[in-house]
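Checklist before submission:
- one chain only
- standard amino acids only
- sequence pasted in full

Submission:
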Amino acid sequence: MTEIDAQTIKQQNREDWDHAAPAWRKYDQNLRRGSEPLTRRLLEMAQIKPGQRVLDIASGTGEPGLPAAVIVGQSGSVLLTDQSQEMLAVAREKASAQGLRNVDFLVSDAQQLQLEPESFDAALCRGALQLMPDPSQSCA
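Returned file contents:
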């Protein structure tokens, strides 16, 4: 895939997710309920514990990052990333409503994260790898 093709795909994905954010906000409770077993299992497999620093790549509206923030508690932290500013706005609203103060947000392409890998104890990505033009570049 050429770089132009990848950039075109990413731009279209960003626009699509920004456009979809209001529906995700509206149906959040149902969406969370349906994906809760997967989220729980992912957090168990990642061995998320109190005090950890967690990165959630392509978090969308905050899943599984917000449940991870509950587990890590105030002594830990979670950074939610997503290319869609509108989806992260929903996550920000949810974090505020839940009283979570250990969560930060970063609008960023998953394949261009400028973060030090050693600054996190765990990295999560629940459902976005299949949507990326080159998934091998997303969590390197």
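Reviewer check: The chain has one domain: 3-128.
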